[in-house]
Design goal:
It contains 13 helices and 34 strands. It comes from Sarcophilus harrisii.
């Protein structure tokens, strides 16, 4: 028989164990287990499964509510803000492309730092509580120059992009050798947020080589990708893009039961996924600003969800084609995409809320059932004082300071110039100069890509592009200098013309019936070192009537707090704007884009240098405004 003291000891022991269990329970609930990947990785075996009509994530029913944000189109300082807003809208998954041409700008030279730190972006999504679908290409489309493929691939005159052509695959393999090991540890089964990886992108719309997609699939898997693999195609490309053992998904603008019936006809008993539901559309220079009604977006999203399908909003937040990175379309007519990638998306180009956001947040809150995260505050904007450029440097005066010209007998295209350690020139402008001794007609048939200004003795005589084949050259006596300034307005990013995207002068250009020879060629890529070479030159005061091509320099002074703003170049014609060395992108008075987004993190208190390269006609001032001009009619402030 136990003594009373033994009973008391037993009761105290039981009470201590109960208190310990309570403490452990509270600690488990409060502890951030995401910091202990090795422990909770033990319970991740299955990943995202697509065997049956519904997705399963670790054996439990899972419906993907995704949204696209591209880290390379958003300043790194704003990544968290945009991701938090995606989460606050009720979405559970981030999708992002990876642009090869930014990560390997020169053959064998890789960059995964700063704004290109894709690992940090994916990890940030995980910290916020988002799953990730990765779309590594190598081709991404995305209204991005050459669909994300590096331009140096086109140095090979026999290049066949997106095929098993040996030169292309060798480059892909080297790129994947550097990229894939970075993302493998971020996969679901290794404790990361990546639940699926897309194989290439919309290959069914290209479909030139039946062996290509299996090769890319094997290239991903052999380097350690072991999560669910997907393809993504529109209706016309579904059959051509289908790959055995890979989940086929669709891209669309409107719900059409025929699309899903067609998908299920060759992919039975699989989950239905809309990888790209187009919430808006991209804009091209000279066209309208494309808008999709907010109510129509909610109706379409609701229809997809009610079918039991998963979806991804393309785009949730578009961002900006900073620099020269915009793509182009060419279906009978060449059309360059604008700098803004606003896309009429769920968030604006500058990350502001729209009616679409609030209507979708309300919709998702009703089907999720749990309270959604608190809304992050809107990023404040500012209207700073207008800037009147004070200094001026004509392109002709700048030439002698930007390096010796290259000399060739015949014209050489941009990609094959002997610059950048043999990688050619990727973006910007290129100037060809030669001597002529007569007038007549300067003739080109599809040999100028994309737009050229023509000068005789550096006096402007006209412009040429895809549509203008001949330009009259005035008659003068004796030797004269012919200058042809060609702009790469953006390489085509979609369709069958990818292999034809070499820029500058492509082959011979004729004066009357004689091909021109003996060229001096200036590479005007306008990278950081280009402007460093101009900084020591004495610039002139801006003349009363200043014309281009020329550089105009001014100062934006900010007293203390720096905020986002937009630059409006009313009265200017066409060119590029640089702020503190950052290339904001192109402007053109034909619209629809009328302002350039200037992120606050790129500004500083005090003086900020603005340089405008104007091709033809300069304006008097550069306005700063807190309101973009893109065609949107509603902005929501919190």
């Amino acid at each position: 028989m136990w003594s009373s003291s033994s009973r008391r000891r037993d009761q105290r022991r039981k009470l201590s164990l109960l208190l310990l269990a309570i403490i452990v329970f509270l600690l488990v609930r409060r502890f951030n287990w995401s910091d202990l990947f090795p422990i909770w990785r033990w319970h991740r075996h299955l990943g995202l499964q697509a065997e049956g009509p519904n997705f399963l994530l670790e054996g439990s029913h899972f419906q993907i509510f995704g949204g696209s944000i591209h880290y390379f189109r958003v300043p790194r300082e704003y990544w968290r803000d945009r991701l938090l807003k995606l989460k606050a809208c009720g979405l559970n998954t981030l999708t992002t492309y990876i642009p090869w041409n930014l990560h390997e700008p020169e053959r064998g030279k890789f960059n995964f730092s700063g704004n290109l730190d894709v690992e940090a972006f994916v990890q940030m999504a995980a910290d916020i509580g988002l799953w990730v679908i990765l779309r590594p290409g190598p081709y991404i489309c995305s209204e991005w120059d050459l669909g994300g493929l590096p331009s140096w691939l086109l140095q090979d005159s026999s290049m066949e992009l997106r095929t098993t052509y040996a030169g292309f695959l060798k480059a892909v393999d080297r790129y994947f050798n550097h990229l894939i090991p970075r993302v493998v540890p971020l996969q679901y089964k290794q404790g990361g947020p990546i639940i699926a990886v897309q194989v290439e992108n919309e290959y069914g719309s290209y479909d030139k080589d039946s062996n290509y997609m299996p090769y890319i699939k094997k290239a991903l898997m052999s380097r350690g990708i072991n999560e669910l693999l997907m393809t993504s195609d529109n209706k016309d490309g579904l059959s051509g893009g289908y790959l055995e053992g890979v989940l086929a998904t669709v891209n669309l603008k409107h719900v059409d039961s025929m699309i899903f019936n067609y998908l299920h006809s060759f992919q039975e008993n699989k989950p239905t996924m809309v990888t790209e539901y187009w919430t808006g559309w991209f804009d091209t220079w000279g066209g309208p600003h494309n808008i999709v009604d907010a109510d129509d977006v909610v109706v379409t999203v609701s229809s997809i969800i009610q079918m039991g399908a998963s979806l991804n909003l393309y785009m949730f937040h578009g961002g900006t084609n900073f620099g020269f990175m915009n793509g182009a379309q060419h279906f009978g007519e060449y059309l360059a995409d604008v700098t803004s990638y606003d896309y009429d998306a769920i968030l604006t180009e500058a990350g502001d809320y729209t009616p679409k956001f609030f209507k979708l947040r309300e919709f998702f809150s009703t089907i999720i059932g749990n309270p959604l995260p608190q809304l992050p505050a809107s990023t404040p904007k500012a209207s700073y004082h207008a800037v009147r450029p004070s200094h001026y440097l004509s392109l002709w005066d700048a030439l002698e300071h930007v390096g010796k010209p290259l000399e060739y007998e015949k014209p050489v295209n941009m990609e094959n110039l002997e610059v950048n350690q043999g990688n050619g020139q990727s973006y910007g402008y290129i100037l060809y100069e030669t001597s002529i001794y007569e007038g007549g007609t300067l003739f080109s048939k599809d040999h100028i890509r994309d737009r050229a200004q023509v000068f005789v003795n550096r006096i402007y005589v006209g412009s040429m592009d895809y549509e203008i084949e001949g330009l009259p050259i005035p008659e003068y006596q004796g030797h004269r200098k012919l200058s042809i300034l060609v702009e790469n307005r953006g390489r085509v990013n979609y369709g069958q013309k990818l292999n034809e995207q070499r820029k500058g002068l492509i082959g011979d250009i004729y004066l009357n019936e004689s091909p021109l020879r003996n060229f001096k060629i200036y590479s005007l890529e306008m990278k950081e070192n280009f402007f460093q070479s101009l900084s020591s030159i004495k610039w002139n005061q801006v003349p009363e009537e200043a014309t281009g091509p020329a550089f105009f320099r001014g100062t934006l002074h900010i007293d203390s707090i720096v905020l986002d703003t937009f630059l409006k170049l009313e009265g200017w014609f066409k060119g590029v704007v640089f702020i503190n060395g950052q290339n904001l992108g192109r402007f053109w008075n034909i619209g629809p884009q009328e302002t350039l987004y200037l992120p606050g993190p790129w500004l500083r208190p005090g003086n900020n240098e603005i340089i405008v390269f104007e091709e033809q006609k300069s304006g008097m001032i550069i306005q700063s405004t807190d309101t973009p001009y893109l065609g949107r009619t509603h902005y929501i402030e919190l």
